[in-house]
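Researcher: Sequence recovery benchmark, item below. Answer with residues only.
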């Protein structure tokens, strides 16, 4: 199973739309996929005592990560980085077992010119620190508000092809690592 994380809790985000596109492409490639939408994180997770004792409502998120064969994170760029809620989600995962030896891939998106390059590179450092296996390909979507049609699909066939190529390649990467 591959987990796709929509890396923001912003309502109506393009990040969730792209995460759903990635999920659909993975499912079309025959993969079992779980989509984690950070808008669904339990409110009790944001209390100061959650660092020591996670609320029971967080367990399905944790379980999905622990059972994953790979994690594909879709992140927007907020103020030159990734959203704080995504960092908090990572911080709440059990350490060290949640990301150790986990295949990980990234899609960045932004309104600006660099298409989420900065948050992806910063996330790669965090995942590398947690001993994940980073997939060598990434996808950056610049000017995201102009790239999606009314149905939330990528209007540019070349970008849609690159998304499919990324997720199918990542699925193969996950399978190869499972065999080792």
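Model:
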């Amino acid at each position: 199973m591959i987990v796709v994380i929509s890396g923001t809790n912003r309502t109506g985000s393009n990040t969730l739309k792209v995460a759903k596109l990635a999920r659909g492409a993975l499912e079309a490639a025959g993969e079992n996929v779980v989509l984690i939408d950070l808008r669904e994180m339990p409110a009790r997770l944001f209390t100061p005592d959650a660092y020591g004792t996670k609320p029971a409502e967080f367990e399905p998120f944790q379980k999905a990560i622990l059972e994953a064969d790979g994690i594909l994170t879709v992140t927007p760029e907020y103020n030159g980085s990734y959203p704080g809620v995504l960092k908090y989600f990572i911080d709440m995962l059990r350490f060290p077992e949640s990301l150790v030896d986990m295949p990980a891939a990234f899609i960045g998106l932004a309104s600006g010119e660099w298409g989420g390059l900065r948050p992806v590179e910063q996330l790669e450092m965090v995942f590398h620190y947690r001993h994940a296996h980073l997939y060598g390909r990434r996808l950056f979507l610049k000017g995201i508000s102009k790239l999606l049609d009314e149905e939330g699909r990528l209007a540019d066939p070349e970008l849609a092809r690159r998304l499919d190529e990324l997720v199918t390649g990542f699925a193969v990467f996950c399978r190869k690592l499972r065999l080792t």
